Amino acid sequence: MTRTFGTPGQDLVFVPLGGAGEIGMNLYLYGHRGRWLMVDLGIGFGDDSMPAIDVVLPDIRFIEERRKELAGLVVTHAHEDHLGAIPYLWSRLRCPIYATPFAAALLETKLKEADPPVRAPITVVPLGGRFDVGPFNVELVSLTHSIPEPNALAIRTGAGLVVHTGDWKFDPHPLVGGDADMAALERLGAEGVEALVGDSTNVFVTGEPGSETGVRESLTHLLGQYGDGAIAVTCFASNVARLESIAHAAAANGRRVALVGRSLWRIVEAARRTGYLGEAGSFHTDDEVMKVPRDRLVYICTGSQGEPRSALARIAGGSHPCVTLGRGDTVLFSSRMIPGNEREIFRMQNQLVRSGVRLVTDREQFIHVSGHPGRDEVERMYRLVRPRAVIPIHGEVRHLTEHARLARGWGVDTALVVEDGTVARLAGGPVEVVGEVPHGKLVVDGSRIMPFESEVLRSRKRMMFNGAVVVTVVVDLGGTLVREPQITAPGIIDPAADEDDHAALAKVVRTAVAGLAPSLKRDDAAVREAVRLAVRRRFKESHGKKPVTDIHLVRI
Amino acid sequence: MTRTFGTPGQDLVFVPLGGAGEIGMNLYLYGHRGRWLMVDLGIGFGDDSMPAIDVVLPDIRFIEERRKELAGLVVTHAHEDHLGAIPYLWSRLRCPIYATPFAAALLETKLKEADPPVRAPITVVPLGGRFDVGPFNVELVSLTHSIPEPNALAIRTGAGLVVHTGDWKFDPHPLVGGDADMAALERLGAEGVEALVGDSTNVFVTGEPGSETGVRESLTHLLGQYGDGAIAVTCFASNVARLESIAHAAAANGRRVALVGRSLWRIVEAARRTGYLGEAGSFHTDDEVMKVPRDRLVYICTGSQGEPRSALARIAGGSHPCVTLGRGDTVLFSSRMIPGNEREIFRMQNQLVRSGVRLVTDREQFIHVSGHPGRDEVERMYRLVRPRAVIPIHGEVRHLTEHARLARGWGVDTALVVEDGTVARLAGGPVEVVGEVPHGKLVVDGSRIMPFESEVLRSRKRMMFNGAVVVTVVVDLGGTLVREPQITAPGIIDPAADEDDHAALAKVVRTAVAGLAPSLKRDDAAVREAVRLAVRRRFKESHGKKPVTDIHLVRI
């Protein structure tokens, strides 16, 4: 049914290359009249099957191969999973970038700090602005989210109008930035929206999500409750409204605020540069407040997800250069646990509790709200925009499928679940799957970027389970072993502790070589293979393991 | 303050070797008059920092070294984290084992299936029984939990009486086995309990947990709602009451029940052998029901935690030999997500949804209750038993600390948080820490058992992040390279794809050898070290990596 997709025609097509099948790694393409519009280029996060991988990128080879057709990249907002891949991948695309002031400021910093620095042209577009990117006319519609300046995109083409929501919620009192532009959504609905491509993160969530204003009131109350020691609050660094709320709550309780963690300073700097945080007062560095009495202090720390190198993880582990927390101090987790991060978070929380710290989480107190729409808000969005079709994005398959089911229940004609790499027609013909394109995941591994499905990573995973063994065998021309075998078996034999294993393996090697027929002894490949098989058989029997095995043969 | 502990005297001491600092790996020692009583010997579960490790065992060297002092092992109940380590470790202890009929039946099967089989003497003790184990008089007190025959232990010694709760809840309608013996708890309270050592799993949970009977009613209703296809229910295999409930619900809706997953059969067999499941009707094998219409079928499947080799994971992945699920079928998760398992569970759920399966979890429907006591039940337990002191167990530090805080709030004189390896006096003197003993974690790795903190596992972790490299260098007596270097670099160079890397590394090796002073060239260690450093420097620069590195030097 599906076919590999080429160049878009008069209709309007949509291709997710990331974000439809996972939360994170957002990268969406809209295609029309031979050109592509890219929306977002974000990173994904690691996977517990491969702990060494922290950063995942979408595989962009489809669009890289036709980058001449790429009219531009529009960034919906400044979260890492929407713009974090730009420093890694922009040089393969070299397209114009469009972003609102806050996202542009943050992106500029990131591009400057990249190694090597990336010099990409960013066109700063105003909130509510409207501009052409090739054959796409893009109008920004301000929404609310957990970061300043979240934008939905109204994309007008010769084939019709579609709305791409980005990440959003309807926060009636967002504190930072304006309210969601309901009038604009209603106007789009009146104009006629062919399709809405929308956020599915919280489709399993019912009930009212609450507002940032409520969190501010709650924090102001709570910061007065823990009078005896220092208070640390951890939250997502990019939540500028939350930072402002913590600053307000601290001021109301006569406490000064220190920021601990580099990404907080990066956010604050970008926020101030673009007109936010005007009322937040001063933020101090951790060493500026070393003489301030502990009960006059609030630390804002990175590390709400237990990230090992974050400020709070280092404080919890007792390895932070300036900040210590202990008996009498309190840590507030003004954040949620992202699924998959539980063990790291709990490990850090256990360390804090062991030091005598009092923990307060969003389980006990109202100190966090989500930035994504629960199902009631999604339904409200649909009543405003009245799309003829819905394509759920920003979710795993279970989210996308539930979102589609809900949309159908709310009377949307067509709700189509597509995953990364699938091409769907949105306008100019029936809404349906019309092709597929190459897609996948790349990983940032040290200073390299490589496919997730690479031999290097497969080997690494095999070694994680089974260890590795390399044996050097020195034989004469007749195939007689003339040196003791040299064996390195990391992750399976500890040379300091397992002397017997080492000696037994050497014997296995000697026997394997000695047992070969004279003609085979003269054949390098045969000697290597005999030793390889004997070594593997030995480890299977003695250790229940199949190490990654290689044999170096030296013939003298 | 603390000192290494030796042999217990006239007082009564308590030493957790597992379970105080983690959920799982339960192993508790009570010491009195030169003898030790062991309570439980369970496995722990892997850790996402080391995905290759599935099974963790408590490090028993403290008690192994004094096994003559070990009077016996009492098993509180049949969960893996309370008896699962016996097949691995009993041969190092060789002590008598005491268990009630169901746990004894299950343990016998496990010991028989172990490789090699373990022949351990199990004394079957009746529910409510009372018996001597060395200087300890042990009385079993029936409680309720998510498995048949959960027992608290009333341990009477010359120094006084303590109560060890095991895992428990107060289920007013437990369905399988009797009710919790409230009268016995009250009687113990009247007798005077020096200390209660108790379950902390759900100390953060408030509100009524609900009963198995409620789950049965809900399942009976729900199994009538999904009339169109097959229904699969996944739950913890050892929850015999749940199995019976599913069987009842199936029968009420005219559906036959097939068990999919070996551990289900092991549990059902042990349950039937000890008088449970009498009213559950027949369970079929998956191939027995292949001709039964799908809308007349309920599969009970292992795999509620997304375990990769479980029945449901194989069905979801399309690799199960008998069972397929797809459009029109429904899977009920009659279980909770154990923290840390979210990603595996969601991965499996996404596969099921992609096949068109309808998912029902405990988020949408009342189809699971916990087996552990929420804080209200813990308070109720304290009102009955009225312990003078409380030692929280079965929890991470954050659970233990919260449990202790609650206990103090309920008027308990002393609540002492101790972690694995700490010796606490419970009776015969002040309740306090009196020493410490060696403790730790062992891992089952293939057919070996080794310390978690071993060089072998450290290497494996390093290789997971950085790969490994072994270079064989052949030089003559003067130190001139006489063969091309042989390089194996799994997890960092793919020989098929990275030819340039390979060639560049060979050049680095040649240059390193050639650059040595003539005197050093004749020194094996110097040649090896020069090559090792050059190789590591190269990978740091070119790949941002520090592979595990070894050099094989052959001099001819």
Record keyword descriptors for this entry.
homodimer, 556 residues, alpha/beta, eight-stranded mixed sheet, seven-stranded mixed sheet, globular
Main β-sheet of chain A, in a few words? Answer: 8 strands, mixed
- Largest sheet: spatial strand order of chain A: 8-7-6-3-2-1-22-23
Beta-sheet strand percentage of chain A? 25-35%
Oligomerization: homodimer
Based on CA atoms alone, the radius of gyration of chain A comes out at 28 Å
Shape of chain A: globular
Helix and strand content put the structural class of chain A at alpha/beta
As residue ranges, the low-confidence spans of chain A are none
Total beta strands of chain A: 28
**Chain-averaged pLDDT of chain A:** 95
Largest Cβ-defined interface: A-B, 65 and 65 residues
Number of helices of chain A: 16
Instruction: Tell me the distance between the termini of chain A.
Output: 61 Å
* Helix percent band of chain A: 25-40%
Quick overview of this protein structure:
Chain A is of the alpha/beta class and 556 residues long.
